[in-house]
Write a structure and sequence with these properties.
Belongs to the arsA ATPase family. With about 375 residues, this protein is of the alpha/beta class. About 35% of the residues lie in helices and about 20% in strands.
């Protein structure tokens, strides 16, 4: 998988529109990011590993090796200092603040999603810096890639459960010492929302799935597609890597895979030479398609209401969703979030505003789309 990501980075992207480099990006075309601390990419590209610093590989390619733990503890040290200062200046006990301030840098990874969310925030900062025409992120070798990509959503939900925003605002209004802290937490919340929006924006982001073409890849394909649909990642290509086929026999064929419009499926033929230099990576012929602008999965959700008015109205929320095992599909509700569980993976899906004052009536899956029906909650529905 790493080889495919690196090969895609050393090649130029396929795009329907010609690239017009700006003066800022003329010599910095592509940034390749790896989050695996043991990634072989620096050796393959012939550069020294310099954690958390951008290293030039060529005139058009740069490498950034991110170390998740280092990034998290550095960011947490600054936030913990603010927490401790707030606790010192407050004349009354603030249990939530005291608890967070007592978390050591070495323990920061125990907070759900924070390590990966901070790592993705660094990648977001590179993406919006204006220095790069494209960024290729290799998520292999660092655990569950879907858990990493869902980290901003998880952290937002955790913060809201520990200290809901309306309570944060009320505390800031009543206690000036807390205002600086609530501002910092709101900044984290906004960063998480910004990263989540960036990951699901099909106009600027393209997700590329790499699978072995053998039996294991064939067995896992539908499970990967289910996770991608759930997170609303803008899937752009599926790469079937012969080098990852366990038995050497191809069981997945590009022409037999049924995917949504705008998703390219292609095979990556294994080479009989070590992939130990950029020239050999290019021989793989990997080209990563540019973003298509087509929303995917839960990012393509729709809300349709009937002709009735007021509390008599009904609404249907729906999105395309792969479900390998419909029995493992579950729904829940937490405030303004819909908790959707697919294949043991839970995702917080923010409800559109019109549905936040509604209750869930029922839900079903028609083989292609999840459909959830809502009706207004008379206790909170606006009265005319």
């Amino acid at each position: 998988m790493t080889a495919v990501a690196a090969a895609g980075a050393v090649s130029r992207p396929r795009s329907r529109r010609p690239e017009v480099p700006s003066p800022l990006t003329a010599d910095r075309h592509t940034l390749l990011v790896t989050i695996d601390r043991l990634s072989p990419v620096p050796d393959i590209l012939g550069v020294f590993r310099s954690p958390n610093e951008v290293v030039a590989v060529s005139a058009h390619l740069h490498l950034l090796c991110l170390e998740r733990l280092t990034s998290a503890t550095t960011s947490w040290a600054l936030f913990a200092e603010l927490l401790a200062d707030t606790a010192r200046r407050s004349k009354i006990a603030l249990p939530f603040v005291d608890t967070l301030a007592g978390i050591d840098q070495a323990e920061v990874t125990s907070l759900p999603g924070i390590e990966d969310a901070l790592l993705l925030r660094r990648i977001r900062d590179e993406a919006v810096s204006g220095q790069w025409q494209r960024i290729v992120v290799d998520l292999s070798g660092a655990g569950d890639p879907y858990a990493i990509l869902d980290a901003p959503s998880m952290l937002r939900h955790t913060l809201d459960r520990l200290w809901p925003r309306h309570r944060r605002l009320a505390a800031a209004a009543d206690r000036p010492a807390v205002a600086q802290l609530t501002t910092a937490i709101d900044a984290i919340d906004r960063d998480c929302a910004d990263v989540a929006d960036l990951l699901s924006d099909a106009s600027i982001t393209a997700a590329h799935l790499v699978l072995g073409s053998g039996h294991r890849g064939a067995r896992l394909l539908s499970h990967h597609l289910a996770a991608i649909d759930l997170l609303g990642l803008p899937l752009r290509s599926i790469n079937l890597d012969d080098a990852l086929a366990e038995s050497g026999r191809r069981e997945l064929r590009a022409e037999e895979i049924d995917v949504a419009p705008g998703v390219d499926v292609r095979c990556v033929t294994a080479l009989d030479v070590p992939l130990d230099r950029p020239a050999r990576l290019r021989k793989l012929g990997v080209t990563l398609p540019a973003p298509s602008g087509r929303a995917h999965g839960s990012s393509a959700l729709t809300v349709v209401g009937d002709a009735a008015d007021g509390v008599e109205a009904t609404y249907e929320l729906a999105w395309p969703q792969t479900l390998p095992d419909p029995e493992r599909f579950m729904l829940g509700r937490s405030g303004d979030d819909l908790l959707v569980t697919v294949e043991g993976m839970r995702h917080c899906l923010p409800l559109p505003s019109v549905l936040r004052r509604c209750v869930v009536d029922d839900a079903d899956w028609d083989g292609e789309r999840v459909r959830i029906r809502f009706s207004p909650d008379p206790a909170v529905w606006p009265r005319r």
